[in-house]
């Protein structure tokens, strides 16, 4: 007797599907995804271009399973890395069941959001508008913001939230399931992400560098994990990592006076890595200069980005 898993899940009322988060850089996509999942997977900072890869995370509950794709922000590309990031974000639009478009509260809709609206008009995927950061505005103004966005696109739903304060996130989950098809789970119930540990570790180090360094430098940094080894007792990981920058002058700033900045980045990163690995971490950081790596296909691929997306 053949059992059809789709029919079985439909009978159980289980739904599953893929959801992408899009929006301009720095609108809170990674923060929203981390809060929805319940733990830190995607890195966050106040600087643009924080997310460079399409990070896949999994939310499972009694209703079914949502696979989230947190994409880089859609923006005007200035180099090969920028082109890669935009390609990743825009290609996802036709590959998913639901699109979550995150915006900040406001009635002025700039060129960046107008560009995204234009991209969305090329797809038939249901689009849910998420107006984020509502904790920063007056409640009576939220309806004005919703009306302003309704004029540029026909949304399936509009939901005001605060990702940072986890406000109204249950509504986001309920609405997503409303538009997902019935079907089988894609991952085991305890799966949270498909990202390799080494990649998450590299991103955690890059996050701390983004937060500690000046405005210009973070755009030109990457992190490579040269060694990551668990000791026999399982209580300690030895990790050697390099922060890659584009200029000799940046190297000195990243290291800091007497190595103070590098030590600050390493200490902050180690705490997050230990929480994720649930073990102690011996983290050794170096700084290397690779001139113009963001315009090199080889180096972009070498730092963990998919060649097919470049």
Low-confidence stretches: 42-53
Helix content: 25-40%
- What would you call the shape? globular
Output the strand order for the largest sheet.
2-3-1-4-5-6
Task: State the major sheet.
Answer: 6 strands, mixed
Mean pLDDT: 79
Using the CA coordinates, give the radius of gyration. 21 Å
Figure out the total of helices. Answer: 10
Count of β-strands:
9
What structural category arises from helix and sheet content? alpha/beta
The ordered H/E elements are HEHEEHEHEHEHHEEHHEH
Strand content: 15-25%
- Separation of termini? 46 Å
Question: Which terms would index this structure?
Answer:
globular, six-stranded mixed β-sheet, alpha/beta, three-stranded mixed β-sheet, 310 residues
What does this structure look like?
There is one protein chain. The protein is of the alpha/beta class. It is built from 10 helices and 9 strands. The strands form 2 sheets. A 6-stranded mixed sheet has the order 2-3-1-4-5-6, sandwiched between helices. A 3-stranded mixed sheet has the order 7-8-9. Strand 5, helix 5 and strand 6 form a beta-alpha-beta unit. Helix 7 (197-212) runs antiparallel to helix 9. The longest helix is centred in the C-terminal third of the chain and has 18 residues, at 260-277. The chain is globular and about 55 Å long. The N and C termini lie far apart (46 Å).
């Amino acid at each position: 007797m053949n059992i059809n898993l789709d029919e079985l899940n439909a009978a159980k009322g289980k739904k599953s599907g893929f959801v992408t988060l899009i929006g301009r850089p720095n609108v809170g996509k990674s923060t929203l995804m981390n809060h929805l999942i319940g733990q830190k997977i995607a890195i966050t900072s106040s600087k643009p271009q924080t997310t460079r890869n399409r990070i896949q995370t999994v939310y499972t509950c009694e209703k079914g399973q949502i696979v989230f794709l947190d994409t880089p922000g859609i923006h005007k590309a200035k180099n090969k890395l920028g082109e890669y990031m935009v390609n990743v974000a825009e290609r996802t639009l036709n590959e998913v069941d639901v699109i979550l478009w995150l915006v900040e509260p406001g009635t002025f809709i700039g060129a960046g959001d107008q560009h995204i609206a234009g991209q969305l008009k090329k797809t038939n995927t249901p689009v849910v508008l998420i107006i984020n950061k509502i904790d920063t505005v007056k409640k009576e103004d939220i309806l004005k913001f919703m009306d302003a966005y309704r004029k540029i696109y026909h949304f399936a739903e509009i939901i005001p939230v605060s990702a940072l304060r986890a406000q109204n996130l249950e509504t986001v989950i309920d609405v997503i399931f409303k538009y997902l098809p019935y079907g089988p789970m894609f991952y085991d119930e305890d799966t949270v992400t498909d990202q390799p540990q080494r990649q998450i570790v590299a991103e955690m180090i890059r996050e701390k560098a983004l937060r500690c360094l000046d405005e210009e430098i973070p755009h030109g940094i990457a992190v490579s994990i040269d060694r990551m080894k668990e000791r026999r007792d399982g209580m300690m990981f030895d990790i050697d990592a390099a922060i890659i920058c584009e200029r000799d002058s940046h190297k000195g700033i990243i290291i800091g006076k007497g190595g103070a900045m590098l030590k600050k980045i390493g200490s902050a990163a180690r705490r997050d890595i230990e929480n994720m690995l649930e073990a102690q971490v011996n983290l050794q950081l170096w700084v290397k200069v690779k001139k113009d790596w963001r315009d090199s296909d080889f180096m972009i691929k070498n730092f963990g980005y998919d060649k097919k997306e470049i």
